[in-house]
Structure to design on (400 residues):
């Protein structure tokens, strides 16, 4: 009999974290590694947010808080949902967790039973299917490939729904593709969901403020108010405010679901870090003007990376609507051999050879459920991105 849990055997370690760690180890060994694997802004946390955290420490706000958030932060989250998304939530309908991942984890673990199905469009964030499996559910992976702009169609969603479907996981702009759904594209999906009242929606909006070229962000409960009573709208401060390490995510949803998530969180972390909560309050209530400047910087990086990757032999790189990722197709590289002698049979081979031969770390597409691709995070300096693209272009040119 195994000492370890059967539930743990259903999940795998995060590939993105593993690749990032491998890149760190190579760099520590003296290699000139450029890592484009982590989904983390390279900008610093704004000074006014840091100042709020320091003030919280000095004021002694270092004790336990309510399990799912201090009242002040919940009020600010309610105001944010009203101001930016046209959604009305009360503090009792808001949950604050130690990062968006914990909020997602709480929602799924609190609701899934064996046999429950969760629709997950692919490519997907690597944690979605594994958290579903950990909760005893079954991820139903529905491909949304390059031919549809990496966006799920209404027809594909309809075909995936069964009597066992409990959740539909939705992410726009997307990790790993940066694909964003327009209002009309999302309306097509919400029309399907309105025909299936047993299906709940978990909308991961973490990249809301990273949208380009006039793309207008919308969230499901905003497009179709009839879904609000069975939608959990998830967000956080990690990406837009460059606060990944502060670990604050939040969500608004029906009060019974929020209460269940609170119950679970009270038996895990007890509460999110008190200092981080006061910092998040400053982020949500403070000056928001810098968000547009940072989005503009990411857009410029996107344009450069897309152009450079499209110049690489065997690579096709679509232009994403948001986030800070691109997801190039490398069908033209499969079946070739690298200059270092590695046969490229899969996208994982491509990424392994790229790291070993040119010291560039990216994430292979199979980790996100759709191959042959790789993900580049362009949340890095212009100099680093230019050097990385030089190396990728050289690597592709050496394939025979």
């Amino acid at each position: 009999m195994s000492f370890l849990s059967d539930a743990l055997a259903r999940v795998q370690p995060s590939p993105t974290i593993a690749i990032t760690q491998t890149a760190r180890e190579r760099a520590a060994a003296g290699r000139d590694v450029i890592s484009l694997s982590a989904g983390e802004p390279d900008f610093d946390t704004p000074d006014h947010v840091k100042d709020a955290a320091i003030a919280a420490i000095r004021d002694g706000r270092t004790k336990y808080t309510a399990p799912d958030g201090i009242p002040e932060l919940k009020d600010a989250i309610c105001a944010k949902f009203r101001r930016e998304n046209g959604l009305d939530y009360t503090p009792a309908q808001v949950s604050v967790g130690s990062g968006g991942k914990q909020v997602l984890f709480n929602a799924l673990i609190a609701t899934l039973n064996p046999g429950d199905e969760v629709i997950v469009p692919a490519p997907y964030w690597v944690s979605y299917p594994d958290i579903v499996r950990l909760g005893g559910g079954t991820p139903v992976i529905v491909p949304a490939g390059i031919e549809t702009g990496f966006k799920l169609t209404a027809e594909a969603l309809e075909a995936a729904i069964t009597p066992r479907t409990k959740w539909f996981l939705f992410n726009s702009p997307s990790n790993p593709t940066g694909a964003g759904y327009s209002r009309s594209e999302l309306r097509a999906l919400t029309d399907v969901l309105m025909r299936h009242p047993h299906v709940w929606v978990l909308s991961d909006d973490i990249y809301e403020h990273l949208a380009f070229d006039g793309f207008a962000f919308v969230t499901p409960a905003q497009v179709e108010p009839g879904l609000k009573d069975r939608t959990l709208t998830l967000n956080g401060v990690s990406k837009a405010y460059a606060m990944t390490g502060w670990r604050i995510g939040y969500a608004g949803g029906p009060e019974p679901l929020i209460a269940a998530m609170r119950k679970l969180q009270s038996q895990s972390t007890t509460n999110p870090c008190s200092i981080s909560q006061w910092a998040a309050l400053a982020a949500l209530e403070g000056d928001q003007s810098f968000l547009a400047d940072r989005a503009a910087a990411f857009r410029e990086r996107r344009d450069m990376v897309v152009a450079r990757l499209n110049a690489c032999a065997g690579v096709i790189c679509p232009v994403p609507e948001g986030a800070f990722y691109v997801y190039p197709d490398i069908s033209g590289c499969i079946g070739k051999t690298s200059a270092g002698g590695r046969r490229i049979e899969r996208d994982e081979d491509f990424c392994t050879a790229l790291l070993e031969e040119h010291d560039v770390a990216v994430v292979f597409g199979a980790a996100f459920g759709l191959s042959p691709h790789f993900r580049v995070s362009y949340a890095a300096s212009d100099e680093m991105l230019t050097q990385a693209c030089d190396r990728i272009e050289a690597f592709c040119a050496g394939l025979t």
The two ends are 49 Å apart (CA to CA). The chain has a mean pLDDT of 96.
